[in-house]
């Protein structure tokens, strides 16, 4: 298929390259920032950087709008495409309807459920791609496009997709922040972060097989007051980490009371 | 070596079996609870369940005390061993000194940095084992014992070990709780938890290679007020999750301001 990519941020960056890799034709890359659109287009054989959202003279099958949620509506307002072109955004949190103002377009969503940083390559072949579309025909085209990228393609309506995105914030964004705090603690104690890697991998492996609430371990669920106090004392130089420690400890204890548990060791 | 295990909880359960597997001789298993000590001893060739902490008539080289931190001091008070026996606890948070009241013992620590649940088998061969001992000779014996279990053996003094344990609470216990919340959100939206697995694995893989603070993504670091408000609204039925969402969002934003970042997409 012939494709235009709107955006050159983390998602657009990896999605455009993944499309090119599987043989799709990315014809145009739009970004407000000249250097961004030129950098990305230079990585895609046959792609041109474009400075305008008026694509009436750019014949493509699909326009993928991969821009931050906060600017999506503004970008959509300025977007013009040839009649019958599919316009799909890549956002987990935005409804399909946000695209309805694009005149003559068939609208859809292609949300890659993954975290993207320019500094790290991503293998798309197993990334869940969540699709939604205004009609069956549009959905089928997006299925073909998504299926060329990944073996994990799912049709998910707006409300469910928003819940997936919310769950992803807890499982990815918040987890990443905790891993950052954990590494900072190690660094300040002059300990190598590699020591925690087997523990982190086991935590994640266990959570994929069992209900994490049922396998909760540590001083919070054991209600080990001495250790909890000791940890808060050790965090005295980091009031922000203390607040997080207290709130998550409390939440673990409430959860385990509700579940009738409370015996994690380890 | 001939070994006695004190405790039959998650840590004792897996440690004792791992020792037996590599050919160490677990001779005795103590637990207050008859069924617990009998269940564990029955899995260890040649091991006897014992009902008393008086081990003066039980000739072993090493006594491993794997009990919850909150009862460690009490157990140690009642423990009697033959002179020259090594007594080592397995706690991340307790000092070596907690063992000094055991008459005639040589004291040490063997802390397996891992999360243990009885319901899940654990491969010890790469688990970091953190050692401390009162003297070089004791340390060398513990090194041999630990080395028979794992290729990752480290000597770490009490203060550093406590910081490792604190970091592990953030990286494992708190992360596990967030994964639990995330699965609950999916469940309530009738979505399969498998959808999040590639995202979680990528988050952890990225954190092992880069500073998590530098690769933070999501609506918090993007300061996407609309999405943040929408998520808090979706969590209205779960005030506890709302508080966690707000505090971690705030912490991510403070961190990214301090680091001079603020542009994560995905």
From TrEMBL, chains A, B:
Membrane spanning stretches: none
Domain Putative oxidoreductase/dehydrogenase Rossmann-like: start-end pairs: 2-103
Cited Pfam families: DUF2520, Rossmann-like
Domain DUF2520: 127-252
Gene3D superfamilies: NAD(P)-binding Rossmann-like Domain (3.40.50.720), ProC-like, C-terminal domain (1.10.1040.20)
InterPro entries (UniProt xref): 6-PGluconate_DH-like_C_sf, DUF2520, NAD(P)-bd_dom_sf, OxRdtase/DH_put_Rossmann_dom, TM1727-like_C_sf
Protein name per the record: Predicted oxidoreductase, contains short-chain dehydrogenase (SDR) and DUF2520 domains
């Amino acid at each position: 298929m012939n494709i235009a990519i709107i955006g050159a941020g983390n998602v657009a960056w990896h999605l455009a390259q993944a499309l090119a890799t599987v043989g799709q034709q990315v014809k145009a890359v739009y970004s407000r920032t000249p250097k961004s659109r030129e950098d990305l287009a230079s990585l895609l054989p046959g792609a041109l950087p474009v400075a305008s959202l008026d694509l009436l003279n750019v014949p493509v099958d699909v326009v993928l709008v991969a821009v931050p949620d906060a600017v999506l509506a503004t970008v959509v307002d300025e977007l013009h495409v040839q009649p019958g072109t599919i316009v799909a955004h890549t956002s987990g949190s935005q409804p399909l309807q946000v695209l309805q103002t694009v005149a003559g377009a068939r609208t859809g969503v292609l949300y890659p459920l993954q975290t993207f940083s320019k500094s790290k390559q991503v293998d798309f072949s197993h990334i869940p791609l969540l699709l939604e579309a205004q009609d069956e025909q549009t959905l089928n085209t997006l299925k073909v496009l998504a299926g060329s990228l990944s073996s994990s393609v799912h049709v998910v309506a707006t409300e469910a997709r928003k819940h997936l995105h919310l769950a992803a914030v807890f499982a990815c964004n918040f987890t990443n922040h905790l891993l950052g705090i954990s590494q900072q603690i190690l660094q300040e104690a002059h300990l190598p972060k590699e020591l925690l890697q087997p523990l982190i991998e086991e935590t994640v492996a266990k959570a994929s097989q069992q209900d994490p609430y049922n396998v909760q371990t540590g001083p919070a669920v054991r209600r080990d007051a001495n250790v909890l106090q000791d940890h808060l004392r050790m965090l005295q130089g980091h009031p922000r980490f203390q607040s997080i420690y207290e709130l998550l400890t409390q939440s673990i204890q409430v959860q385990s009371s509700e579940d009738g548990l409370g015996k994690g060791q380890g």
